[in-house]
């Protein structure tokens, strides 16, 4: 299992042998404008999940997923970070979320 840490500046790092290693820097440093609806939809479709299933796994209302995908709202803060980690390691994230 991978150990990940969300840094105060929004970066996500992997912890290995007491050291921090950047995780998917191109995804993490993305500006909010780059978290466009197709990105959220693409992540969900790559995971082969319906909007309802994706929302349940993330612990958010299905309306939130719909709003992100339709461009009515954009993921912010922790949601953006979680989506970036899902893009890098979806199986790890879904396995960790399933235990909560």
Automatic annotation (TrEMBL):
SUPFAM superfamilies assigned to the protein according to its UniProt record, in alphabetical order: lambda repressor-like DNA-binding domains
An MF annotation (GO) of this entry: DNA binding
InterPro entries attached to this UniProt entry: Cro/C1-type_HTH (IPR001387), HTH-type_reg/antitoxin (IPR052359), Lambda_DNA-bd_dom_sf (IPR010982)
Keyword field: DNA-binding, Transcription, Transcription regulation
Domain HTH cro/C1-type: start-end pairs: 40-75
Record protein name field: Helix-turn-helix domain-containing protein
């Amino acid at each position: 299992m991978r150990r990940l840490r969300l840094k105060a500046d929004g970066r996500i790092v992997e912890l290995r042998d007491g050291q921090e290693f950047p995780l998917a820097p191109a995804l993490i440093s993305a500006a909010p404008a780059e978290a466009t609806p197709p990105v959220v939809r693409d992540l969900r479709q790559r995971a082969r999940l319906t909007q309802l299933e994706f929302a349940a796994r993330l612990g958010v209302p299905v309306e939130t997923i719909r709003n992100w995908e339709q461009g009515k709202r954009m993921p912010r803060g922790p949601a953006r970070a979680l989506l970036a980690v899902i893009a890098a390691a979806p199986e790890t994230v879904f396995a960790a979320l399933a235990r909560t």
